[in-house]
Amino acid sequence: MSGLLRRHRDFRLLWCGETAGKFGAAVTNVAMPLVAVSTLHASTFAVGLLAAAGWLPWLLIGLPVGVWVDRVRRRPLMLASAALSLALFAAVPVLARYGRLGLGALLAVALLTGGAAVVFQTAYSAYLPTLLDPADQAEGNAKLHGSASAAQIVGQGTAGLLAQLAGAVNGLLANAGTFLISLLCLLGIRHREPRPAERNDGRAARSLPAEIAEGVRLVAGDVWFRTLTLFGALSNLALMAYQSLAAVFLVREVGLPSGAVGGLLALASTGGIAGAFLVRRTAARLGTARAMLLYELGLPSAALLIPLTTQGAGTLLYVAGSFGVSAGVVGGNILKVGFQQRYCPPSLLGRLVASSAFLNYGTLPLGALLGGALGSALGVRTALWITTAGVPLAALTLVLSPVRTVRDFPERRTDDAQHATGPGPEERDGAAARS
Question: What are the residues whose beta carbons fall under 8 Å from the beta carbon of 416, sequence distance 6 or more?
Fold first, then answer.
C-alpha cells in the first residue's frame, strides 16, 4: 500500500468507496445498453437515447448544483446521492421480475441516477481538496483516477460475464451493491468540513442566479478555464458519439457475444491505468501543459483504428484504439483536475466544477444522440469513422490556445488572468509556473 493510502485513513475510505462506485458504474455502462439491445430489442437510436439520458441532468441541473455545493457541506450530499442510486439500480431487476421493465422505465432510471451523479461528482470534486493537504493532492488525484481505471476494467469484464451467466438485467444488482459499499465508506470518514460561512470567509450567500453567473464568469473570463472547458465539451461530444455505438457495433456489426463485449471493453480500458501511472512522470519531464497535449492529442489519435475492427484478430484494432483513447482521457483528466485545485479559489471550486461540467458533460447527451442518429442514417461503421475522427480533432482547441506556448500551467490565479489572451515571456519557458 502506498504512502498516502497507508497514513491517511479518511482518504483510504474515500478511495475505497470511490473505487467501488467506479466499478459499479463500469458494470452499468456495459449492462444498460446490453439490456436495451438483448432484452428489450431496442433500436440503435433508442440505445443512443438511453446513453443521453444518463448525462442530460448535467444540462438540466448542473449549474444550480454547483452553487448548492458551495453553500453546504459536501459529504452529506454525497451520502444522499449514493443512497438514491442504490435504491434505483436495485429496482431494475425487481421491475424485470414482475414484467414491468420497459424502455421508458430504463430511461427513467438512467435519468434519475444521472441526476444523483451530478450532485455526487460536483460535491466530490470540491470535497477532496478539503480532505488532503495541497502537497498530497497530486498523489491523491493520481491514486483515484488510477484505481478508477482499474475498477472500470474489472467492472466491464464482470458485466460481460454476468450478462452471459445471469442476464444483463441482473448485472445491475452489482452496481447497487457497490453504492452500498460507497455509502458505508463515506459514513466512516471522520473528517468534518468547515461550515460554509467559514469556507467563504464569512460572506453572506447571494441569490442563486448571481452565484451561477459568478461561476459562469469564472470559466468564460479566464483563458485557462475557458480553453480547457471548450476542449472538454468538444472532446466529450466525439467520445460519447462513438461510445454510444460501441455495444451495437460489437454485437451487430462485428458479431461478438455479450460476454465477449465486456471482456473486450475491459481489455481496452487498461489504457486508463497506464495513463494514470505515467502522467506524473510525464508532467515532470515535459511540463504539465506539454503533457496535456501529448495525452489529449497524441494518444487519442489511435481512435481511428476502432472502425477497422473485424472478427478474430481484427478485434485487437478495437483494443489498440480504445487503449490510446483511455490512456489519453485519464492522463488528461488528472492534469486538468490538479490544475483546477491549485489555481481556483477554494470558495469557488464547486461553481467552477459545475460551470465547466455544464458544458463538458452537457455535450455527452448530444453526442449520444448524434451517434445514434448517424448510426441509423449512415450505418454503424460509417458513423464510427466520423465520430472517432472527432476525438483527436477536438484537441486542436488546445493547439490553437496558449496551452501550446507554455511548458507548465500556472500555479496561481492572478488578477489579470481573466483578461489574458496568452502567456508572458516567463510562462513560455516555464519559470513562472512554480511558486
Answer: none
Residue 391 neighbours by CB under 8 Å, 6+ apart = 235, 238, 239, 242, 300, 301, 303, 325
What is the 3 state secondary structure string of 213-245?
Answer: HHHHHHHHHCHHHHHHHHHHHHHHHHHHHHHCC
Query: Could you tell me if 100 and 61 are in contact, meaning their C-beta atoms sit under 8 angstroms apart?
Result: no
Q: Give the separation between CA 123 and CA 327, rounded to whole angstroms.
A: 25
Instruction: Compute the mean pLDDT over every residue in the chain, rounded to the nearest whole number.
Output: 81
Q: How far apart are CA 203 and CA 216, in angstroms?
A: 19
CB 75 within 8 A of CB 141: no
d(CA 74, CA 194): 10
Contacts of 331 (CB under 8 A, 6+ apart): 275, 276, 278, 279, 282, 291, 295, 299
Backbone dihedral region for residue 412 (phi beyond 0: left; psi -120 to 50: alpha; all else: beta): beta
Alpha-carbon distance of 87 to 337, in angstroms, equals 30
pLDDT at 338 exceeding the cut of 90: no
* Predicted pLDDT at 416: 43
- Residue 400, SS3? coil
Task: Let me know if 36 is exposed, middle or buried by CB neighbors in 10 A (0-12, 13-18, 19+).
Answer: buried
Q: Supply the pLDDT for residue 196.
A: 65
**Eight-state DSSP code of residue 313:** G
Least confident piece of the model among 186-190, 260-264, 383-387: 260-264
Q: Does 380 score more than 80 pLDDT?
A: yes
| Short-list 51, 279, 303, CA closest to 144 | 279
Query: Of 45-59, 326-340, 403-417, which range is least confident?
Result: 403-417
Cell numbers of 273, please? 491505468
- The pTM score is 0.68
